[in-house]
Design a protein that fits this description.
Layout lengths: L1 E6 L4 H16 L3 E6 L16 H10 L3 E5 H6 L10 E2 L1 H10 L2 E5 L1
Parallel strand pairs: 1-2, 1-5, 2-3, 3-4
Length: 107
């Protein structure tokens, strides 16, 4: 299965759960693409004493998950693209929606 996840939140627990699902799907040999949109572009910077958004995102990246972040959303927050939020476009988001068997939006 091809799973697309559009992440539109900077809530640490929601980010953590979205990437836990993404990692579980990768472990089950599914293809997964995540697009960070809106507040979601802040996800790599989140810190929380109970949840570890950065850690699950790093695991996703190291396991070969595809990740991109809305360039316009990055610019509006004066954030730089990096390895956990590579600059993407709405065309990248559309590709995820069109090519995925299932799309989940977490917001």
């Amino acid at each position: 299965m091809d799973l697309g996840i559009i992440l539109e939140t900077n809530d640490p627990e929601r980010v953590w759960n979205a990437f836990r699902l993404a990692n579980t799907a990768l472990d089950a040999e599914n293809a997964v693409k995540v697009f960070l949109l809106g507040d979601g572009v802040e996800a790599p910077d989140l810190d929380h004493p109970k949840f570890n958004p950065h850690g699950v995102m790093r695991k996703y990246d190291q396991n070969g998950g595809h990740l991109s972040a809305c360039g316009t959303c990055l610019d509006s927050r004066d954030l730089e693209a990096d390895d956990l939020r590579p600059r993407g476009t709405m065309e990248d988001c559309l590709d995820i929606v069109e090519s995925a068997d299932k799309v989940l939006t977490v917001g």
